[in-house]
Design a protein that fits this description.
This protein is an alpha+beta fold. It contains 14 helices and eleven strands. The strands form two sheets. It has a six-stranded mixed beta sheet with strand order 9-1-10-3-6-11, sandwiched between helices. Strand 4 and strand 5 form a beta hairpin. Helix 6 runs antiparallel to helix 7 and helix 11 runs antiparallel to helix 12. The longest helix has 21 residues. The model has no long low-confidence stretch (mean pLDDT 87).
Length: 318
């Protein structure tokens, strides 16, 4: 049985990818384009740099040991701070000039080797049809300072190992690094939703002891006959207190949350080979195919059959 956060990330079909480890020397700058259905990450293994994210007023100072996650794949620039208007180049240009082949270390920049910045850069991809408010409501950038130390010795060791394995010469190193990176993402999201910043982004229920207990119980058995009353009982609260506190913490009703997640589960079933409308309905806790279809269309904007046809057509076109 998966816990709350694990269940969400698993259902979103998260997959980690490390796309390069860098050796940047001043002056340097890289503009990373927008990419849909991904969360970007950059870990400062050695040295430091600035990160400017589209839609965020001030650049972030990424110091050695810091981790940043850009949850929505927004365009952003990484740079040394020296004459950014002239030194920041598109990522494709940097790859071409550096001669980077996709393996090993991306070496780029000027003639100041003592100013080397080593970054581990990658992204986490998600299924384009998958949705959850946890991912949708994360801020444009999550900056975790001195992350290895603050997350504990095991995380510091993991980050060190990713730095050693990614782009290295040992067999299996890249696979080890990217699987570890998925652990990093889960830990980073957990750190954020447990922080004091989470309520500001409509994610307060995940850190609330009582509300999260109800969410965890629901995620372990989403097809059960959940009501506000039964969720409140699990939370150890009265129905009214639970409903009011949940609405305040999440800016949505408990049943809205239940319904949205059930439809995400149904999407995966609909795309499973040989599955039927009834299979999808039952996975989402509906005894009636017609009631399920009505709710699905309201949430997804199309019928279950239309959804399946659209996704399968999109997949075959790739």
């Amino acid at each position: 049985m998966l816990d709350l956060l694990s269940d969400i990330l698993t259902n979103l079909s998260m997959r980690g990818t490390i796309y390069f480890r860098t050796s940047f020397t001043k002056p340097w700058g890289v503009a990373v384009p927008r990419y849909e259905n991904v969360a970007r990450f950059h870990f400062a293994h050695r040295g430091n740099c600035l990160i400017r994210v589209e839609g965020v007023d001030d650049p972030v100072d990424l110091a050695q040991g810091d981790l940043v996650i850009i949850p929505h794949g927004a365009p952003h620039a990484l740079y040394c701070g020296h004459d950014p208007e002239r030194t920041i180049m598109p990522l494709d240009t940097v790859l071409e000039v550096s001669g980077f082949t996709g393996t090993g270390v991306l070496v780029y920049g000027g003639e100041e080797p003592q100013s080397e910045t080593q970054l581990i850069c990658g992204h986490f991809s998600f299924e384009p049809y998958a949705r959850h408010i946890l991912m949708e409501r994360l801020p444009p950038i999550i900056h975790l300072k001195n992350y290895g130390e603050s997350a504990g010795r095991w995380m510091e060791a993991t980050l060190r190992m990713i730095g050693e394995e990614s782009g290295g010469q040992k067999m299996g190193g890249d696979l080890i690094a990217l699987k570890m990176s998925e652990t990093i993402f889960a830990q980073a999201v957990r750190t954020f939703i447990e922080s004091s910043d989470a309520p500001e982004w409509g994610l307060g229920a995940f850190a609330d002891r009582n509300l999260s207990r109800a969410l965890d119980a629901f995620h372990k058995a989403p097809a059960d006959s959940w009501t506000v009353e039964t969720l409140a009982q699990v939370a150890g609260m009265s129905r009214t207190s639970f409903a009011v506190q949940f609405q305040k913490a999440m800016d949505m009703t408990p049943i809205d949350y239940v319904t949205k997640w059930r439809m995400e589960i149904a999407k995966k079933v609909l795309l499973s080979p040989g599955s039927s409308l009834t299979d999808a309905a039952e996975s989402a806790g509906y005894a009636s195919d017609s009631a399920f279809a009505r709710t699905f269309k309201k949430e997804a904007g199309m019928s279950p059959a239309e959804f399946r046809k659209a996704i399968l057509a999109e997949s075959s076109a790739v």
